[in-house]
Structure formats: structure tokens, C-alpha cells
Amino acid sequence: MNFLKQLQKLAFGVALASTLTVPAFAQEVWSMGSAKRAPDIGATFDEETVAALLGATDAVENVEIQFIGNEQEMIQQVIRGRLNMGGSTPLGLAAAFPDISVLNVPYLWDDAEQRQYVYENHVIPQLNETFASSGLVVLSVQEAGFNGVFCTFDCSDPATLKEKRIRVSASASSRLFWDSLGSMAIQLPLPDTWSALEQGLVVAGELPIAYFATTPAAATAKHFVYTDHTHSPWIYFVNKRSWSKLSEEDQKAVLEAMPGAFSTSERFFADNDARATSFTDNGGTLYKLDDAQRKAWADLVVPNIGKLVEEMSPGARKLYEAIEAGKKEYAAR
Predict the structure, then answer these.
(1) How far apart are CA 152 and CA 170, in angstroms?
(2) Nearest alpha-carbon partner for 323 in 108, 171, 145
(3) pLDDT category of residue 24 using cuts at 50, 70 and 90
(4) Prior bond to 98 cis, omega within 30?
(5) Which residue among 156, 178, 197, 244 is least crowded, i.e. fewest CB within 10 A of its CB?
(6) How many CB atoms are located within 10 Å of the residue 223 CB?
(7) Within-domain flag for 198
(8) Cα angle vertex 102, ends 111, 223, to 5°?
């Protein structure tokens, strides 16, 4: 009998010890999908975003970053919960969220200060609503730069692109730009674009120089024109079911820990310059446009923007109208 009591005491002691040493919640390992990888500076921003999240909550033990070159596939995996987090531009998100292709309307912004003000006060609140409808939560909005035009030939004159086969994204704004130039638009995922350039299926496309210079396309398309026609934000988001597992306190802490909107811009554009140098060092040619040359491109595109807006969905028009209202508000300040 005494022996039985001793066993009972021992079992109680082990159980008590286990309650003291095991955390009150189970830590999770999350996964994040990204189309960025070193030496692209976007991969550094991915790591900083992950570090901010891990520093703000103990509920997530680690976040494993997975390179997924097909952004549309990656975004669907986050929506379905196969990945916990992701990051992409509106060009990549257009298939899942057609409304936010508005953010890639060509020649939308006058300057960086205007853009940041409108994003912080008008765009980001609407992005939260749009993403929530598909089970995602916006974490942060950062810099993805301006698109320029890459070609397998000297295309600094937009007339040279008329009737040429061009790679376009799923974004209506991307198609508007190329249709305005009289080009033949061929929609392709980015990973398929590199081989399409090599085989001559397409001869041009659009990307920021910092990203383009790190891709296989830089070896085939040796010409890059700084049209700066489309600006893209880089949007970090998390699956809502994963997010809901965090306490409200942790959710607030994570959002407060995220880098401020466009706080990465200065480093991003400095990296742009470095990537541009590496592109020319490897035999590439850059074309920097003066005001008159840039206007020659814009004059072909801007007259068609009104029609694009008219054909947008109600959600897209709502976002566009919010942007225009924000620009007026900024000007009045």
C-alpha cells in the first residue's frame, strides 16, 4: 500500500513538472512563399519581414521562406492555407485580385511623396478590405519599383514595338500599356518568359531593372529602357486562418513591428543602380529617357486610361476613385 502511494506521488510529481516545463501553447513553424531570391534585394526584405514577425510573437517558432517562381501559384497556395504567408506585386496578384491592378495604371503618380501619402491614407485601408474577402490579411506594403521595358533589340523608340510579340502579365493595366503601343500581347507566367525570349516567341516585356537584371532574361534581352511607366508596391500578406491563431495582442504586436509603408524605398532604388551597373557590365545597354522621350511613350498610353477605368469592376473603380480623391487631398495640403 505504501508502495502504491509512492507511485501515485511520483506520477503526480512528473505531471506537475511537465506542466511547469511545457509552454501553454504549441509553437508553429510557418512557411512563406516568395518570387524573390538572392541577390535580389527583395529577398533581404523578405528576411526582414520574417524577423519582425518572429520578434513580435512567440506563437510562431520559425518561418521558412520558399522560392516559388510562379507568383499566381504561390498566391493560391497562401489563400488555400498550404503556405502561411506570401509577398507579391499587383501584377502577380491580378489573377486573384483583378481590382488591385488599378495600382499598376501607367503614369498614375506625380512623385514619391504623393504616392506614399495616398497609400497610407486611402489605398492600404481598401487593400485590407479586398484581401479579407479572400481570406488574407495585409501585413505590410513595401517598394517594388518602376517597370521599364526590356527587349532583345534597341526599343528606345516605342514605334519599334508595334506589332511585336510581347510578354504581358495577367494585369489589365499591363495589357493596356502594350495595346496602346500596338504590340501583340502574349500572357505568360514569369518562369515561362525566359525560355520564350530565347526561342523568339516574345521579344520584349516589362519589369523593374533590379529584378530583371537578376533573371535569365538579362542574358537574352540585352536592352532596357527606363520608361518608368508603371509603379508597383510589394505587398506582404498572411493567410487569415493562420493569422486567427495568434492572439489579438500578438496580431497588434506583429502589425506594429512591420516596417512602415515604403520604408524600404531608399535601399531599393540604391540597389536598382547597382543592378543596372551589373547589367551593363555583362553587355547590356540602358536607355535613360529625357522628358521629351518619356512624353512620347506616355502620349500613346495616357489617352486610353479613361476607357480602362470605365471598363473596370465596381471594386476597381472604387479604388481608383479613392486614389484620385487622395491625390486631390494631397494637393490641397
Answers:
(1) 22
(2) 108
(3) very low
(4) no
(5) 244
(6) 17
(7) yes
(8) 65
